[in-house]
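Trying the structure run again after the queue cleared.
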Amino acid sequence: MQQRYDQLDSLRGLAALAVMIGHFFLVFMPMAQNTSSMSYLEYPLNVLKYSPLHAFWGGHEAVIMFFLLSGFVLSLPFYSNKQQSYPKYVVKRICRIYLPFVVALFIAILFRDAVFLKKLSDLTPYFNSLWTRSPDFASIGDHLRFITNYNTTKYNPIIWTLVHEMRISLIFPFAMFFVAKWGWKAGVPLAIGLSLVSMYLLGAIETRYTTNYVISLHYASFFVIGAMLAKYRESLKQLYNRMNGWFAAAVLVAALFSYSYKWVIYSKSFAKHITEPQGDWLIALGASIFIVAAMSSVRASKLLHLKPLLFLGKISYSLYLYHMIILLTFLHKLNGTMDPAFIAMIAFAASFGAAAASYYYVELPSIKLGRLLTTSRKKQQTQVAEKGNTSASM
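Done. Tokens:
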């Protein structure tokens, strides 16, 4: 039976929570504006903004973590020779990612029409620019086609990552042919090669929107890195566990600095020489160490197996899908009637309720549908018979 790493689900949940916190912070101008020229004493909030503490609300960093974890989990069946046929794999990915996305899309459209009166003008530029245009058939069609290159900010601005997730998922089994067979000898050149080609094309051609195909090549690199973390997980766990306590702590601190490098060096003159794709490799290094620590450390594993964190991991996809919809709904409905801080707190709590409802009433049925569509009729009949026999014997 394939081993399940529940602690990595919790890690995904924490990453989704970081994205959510980051978006809620951006409601407030003191958090959204560039204050990097001021010292911590002059502007104490800079401790949160321009230090490794930014890791706790770093959205882009969390996205790289998502891609690594996806590569890790999707690769596991290939190492135990339990991978499904490609058509079955695609059907399951569509049910897992696309169906909940479609439901969230139409909920965003309905909520926007229900609460929109006028453009927000007293918040940060980011939020003032959202939900400003009415829905139209052309943009809805773009969203329903899902994996094409289009403007994803109109209804739910976070979905650009899901476009890359789905797009890369469709080609991932072909990459796994090489990684599963030749390991790091194929995986390292493949990951680096995809990223380098992407960086070259980004500089050579004009790309449009954050869902452009070129950047998908770059993000595919982190799926491959995640797959290699899965392939060598036992060796990496042994390596981590051979470290003494102080050395392991130093490695984790270094990982935190690597993961949040952008904010640590934000105001430094040399920061401009590091492009975002190059910096993503520093983020991936830190995130990879966190993944290894989550699997290896007894303390980390116990922490990540706490029931609230396990539940957070379960609802992480829905939390990612709905937090901006909920926040924008409350901002448009209540703006001007109460302080934005109170609106954000109400929306923050409501987001968890919406995520839980989506998990139970959209995600789980979608997953079950995927299993149903990819299970043969004979196997379904056998499973029903076995359940009947079990019930009769109780």
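The longest helix spans residues 340-374. Worth checking whether this holds up in the mutant runs.
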